[in-house]
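Researcher: We're reviewing a set of sequences before deciding which ones to prioritize for further study. For each one, I'd like a predicted 3D structure that I can look through quickly. This is General secretion pathway protein GspF. If possible, include the structure in token form so it fits the rest of the review sheet.
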Amino acid sequence: MPAFRFEAIDQAGKTKKGVLDADSARGARSQLRTQGLTPMIVEAAGARARGTHSQRLAASKRLSQREQAILTRQMASLLIAGLPLDETLAVLSEQSEREYIRELMAAIRGEVLGGHSFANALTQHPKDFPEIYRALVAAGEHTGKLGLVLSRLADYIEQSNALKQKIVLAFTYPAVVTLIAFGIVTFLLSYVVPQVVNVFASTKQQLPFLTIMMMALSGYVRHWWWATLIAVVVVIWSVRQILAQPGPRLGFDRWVLTAPLFGKLVRGYNTVRFASTLGILTAAGVPILRALQAAGETLSNRAMHGNIEDAIVRVREGTSLSKALGNTKTFPPVLVHLIRSGEATGDVTTMLDRASEGESRELERRTMFLTSLLEPLLILAMGGVVLVIVLAVMMPIIELNNLVQ
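Model: Here's the predicted structure for General secretion pathway protein GspF, in token form for your review sheet.
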């Protein structure tokens, strides 16, 4: 039975909004009138809003990572408790505070009641449920373990969000320090240096070379800052256009994996995503080739994604998963060894989970080490720049004092 979103006015003149099930829009209006409401707007739930303003709002709507994790966790809990899927979606639609989520759940429920599978219903909303999400749901429906798969999927989303948040927070302080330092140096060069140094320039005194260079840099900052800004924008745009092409992007991603410090971070982050996703897929009973292909899609590094495609070819030819991944020389040896142990014991899923947890902890440790190394380096760099500016200002004063004596 389709779901319809409505706006109606009660007898007191108050506006009410919500979602209800009906055979048609006409039937929905009849239900509202039976309840003593005067229908104003009745339209299919999830339908694209009309009008320029509404289209702009609809385009900006989507589930956040936090909302996706909460919905997945709630669905898993209700399904494991024995509630049918359509009733689960109805409960989520009724209890959601955000209107967009209510309409989304109602629209998915309407597709399910119309005879579509849950995975096919999610396909109508690719913004909110990515391909890997839909693949896991399809695997859960196929094996009859949808509740357990959604529970593991909720764990994966929460852990992924927590890891991203830790990495972002770790690099926030160095970014703020860099921004403040840049602002202070710009202020010194554009205001302080000209005010002080011009006094000595008017005395026709021979200025030190460092002071002359600082005056030239100050003049450039004051009069040609816009040229620097344009150049930076052009460079960023050019780099993005170049990296949008497959060849340069692949070469760049290969270089990133070998870059000092940051290369291990990129490798570790992608390894965590790959191992976690592959563990969920294998636990859901997805065939290994399909699981490898889906897990490979979660990799943001093109070089590592290409290595997974090579591994898929080797596994299809009969090579074990551990040996296929080991031949790529890309993934950490710990992951390969744990998969080999899982193949020997017949429990690859548990070993993938252990590899994901271990690599996640190692990634956090490396992130903390890198940020703890960046902070003193930024402070030293800031101190060095300020020292050069102070010397450029003080050297004429010292020379003038020597001449007076």
